[in-house]
Each structure stands twice: as structure tokens, then as C-alpha cells.
Amino acid sequence: MQAQRDCLNWAAQAVSSLPGIVLELGLGNGRTYDHLRELLPDRDIYVFERDVRGHANSLPPEKFLILGNVEEMLLSAADHLPSMAALAHIDLGTSDADAYKSFAGRIGPLLYPLMTSGGIIVSNIALTVNEFIQNACPPNVKPGRYFIYRNNPKNQISGNRHEMMNTD
Ligand code: SAM
Predict the structure, then answer these.
(1) Which residue ranges have their beta carbon within 6 Å of ligand 1?
(2) 119 vs 56, which has greater pLDDT?
(3) How far is the CA of 140 from the centre of ligand 1 (A)?
(4) Which of 57, 104, 111, 130 has its CB surrounded by the most CB atoms within 10 Å?
(5) What is the pLDDT of residue 164?
(6) In this predicted model, what pLDDT tens digit does every residue of 151-166 receive, in sequence order?
(7) Closest ligand 1 atom to the C-alpha of 103?
(8) Domain ranges of the chain
(9) pTM for the model
(10) 99 to each of 15, 75, 88, 94, 114, how far by Cα in Å?
(11) What separation in Å is there between the alpha carbon of 69 and the centre of ligand 1?
(12) 125 pLDDT exceeds 60?
């Protein structure tokens, strides 16, 4: 999907001077994971997926695959990940409007403690975390089709990251 690729291309540039890992939420057939590893060959990309079906060529190495329900895995991820994330891509695909809304309300606060200050979130769902400042998508991306946020650069996370989750 072109909108997704354009947003990821933009995001890869936007984090070029920002240290940190990359999080891919939803492996699917590995299409965007492949794109991310082409764009960011020197970054460690951690992939969250509950049901791995991708082609063997598009699977992350075992140590970068976080298997299970993403909400549960994000809760404990801070204890296992080596650093904060410079970039996160959410593509967990849901077509049910109600499920979509409640999922969007939960996933942002779970992701927030893992994001570095100024980090970029590219998402197929609109997020509602106060610290995630919405950024325009590239001009050819239809409004509402995809979403880009920057974690508030003034927001320095320290201490226990789980206590700092925003649940608005
Ligand atoms: N970005 C992928 C690509 O371009 O190939 C497509 C991802 S696909 C639309 C969504 C994926 O999210 C599916 O593989 C599904 O198993 C996974 N997923 C959805 N909800 C999940 C959850 N709660 N926990 C873990 N994985 C989930």
C-alpha cells in the first residue's frame, strides 16, 4: 500500500539522527517489515505478532520476534527491550469499527512508555495519547488514511516507565 510506504519512508528520514530500536506491531505477511529493514538496515527491529504466517524470507530472527497478544507483550516489553524505540509502526488491522476504537484507546498508552523523546509513531489507527503530537502525513496520503505522531520532544521518560503510562 503506497500510503503506508510513503509514511514509513518519511518516518525513516525523520528518525535518522535519533538513536533507538524500531517496533513493528503486526507482522502479517512481512511486507512492511521487509520495507522497514530495507529503509533502516542498521536498526534492530522488534516485531510483535500473535500468529506468525509470513514467508520464511520475511520473518525476523527469533530474538527479534515477540510472540503473543500485543497488548500483553507491550506491558512487559520494557523489561526485555534493550533501549527505547525511535520508531514504531502499528498495523494490527481491524475492520470492526467498535473494536477499532477501543483497541486504539488501549494501544497508544501501552506503546508510550517504550518511545524515546521525539520518537515517531506511524499507525493505521488514530491514537489518543496526549504526548503523541500528530504530524502531517506526506502530501499524497489521503487524510485519515494513515497517521503519524511524534512523541513530545520535551517529554523525557525516566524511572519506572510503566508508571508513566497515559490512560486518557
Ligand atoms: N504490516 C503487515 C504487512 O504489511 O505485511 C500487515 C499486518 S496485518 C494487517 C495485521 C497483523 O496483526 C496480523 O498478522 C495479525 O495476526 C496481527 N495482530 C492483530 N491483532 C493482534 C494482537 N492483538 N496481538 C498480536 N498480533 C495481532
Answers:
(1) 26-32, 48-51, 69-70, 91-93
(2) 119
(3) 25
(4) 111
(5) 41
(6) 998 765 543 344 444 4
(7) 23
(8) 2-165
(9) 0.92
(10) 31, 20, 21, 7, 23
(11) 10
(12) yes
pLDDT in tens, 63-106: 999 999 999 999 999 999 999 999 999 999 876 767 777 888 99
DSSP notation for the chain = -HHHHHHHHHHHHHTTT---EEEEE--TTSHHHHHHHHH-TTS-EEEEESS--S-GGGPPPGGGEEES-HHHHHHHHTTT-SS-EEEEEE------HHHHHHHHHHHHHHHGGGEEEEEEEEESS----TTEEEEPPPTTSPTTTSEEEEE-TT----S-GGGG----
Q: Is the pLDDT of residue 37 over 80?
A: yes
C-alpha–C-alpha distance, residues 145 and 101, integer Å: 15
What is the CATH code of the structural domain delimited by 2-165?
Answer: 3.40.50.150
β partners of residue 48: 25, 66
Please give the radius of gyration of the chain, using alpha carbons only, rounded to the nearest integer: 15
Cα separation of 8 and 35, whole Å? 8
